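Let us work through a complete example step by step.
Step 1: write down the sequence.
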Amino acid sequence: MMISPESYYEEYLKGKTKEEIMTAIRGLKQEIGHLKNSMENPYDGIKTVMHPSEDTRLHWNREYLERAKEAYAEAGGTYTLSKSEEKAADFVANIDAISKITFSIGGYFGGHQNYT
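Step 2: predict the structure and record it as tokens.
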């Protein structure tokens, strides 16, 4: 069962030090990375059915991460973005500038298809 970001704050972050909150942030980032790798693995043909689903867990872990960053700032810390977070923020800021995406799918002996 997933909880709201405010409930997450109340249960796991409220009253914690900056260092403890940063540990929670690292744990959330690790869980997000694990979920993304699990969802994107093309060779994982056997999927375990779990509730909530991986995409639901990913969504809420991202919400918890944002709330944890706010709690870190409230505790007096200054959160600095990692390189991957900087790249993601840059992509989101410039997404309107994308006019065309081309995919080339296939290869080797079967040829390939281009999709625009």
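Step 3: interpret the result. The first strand starts at residue 103 and ends at 106.
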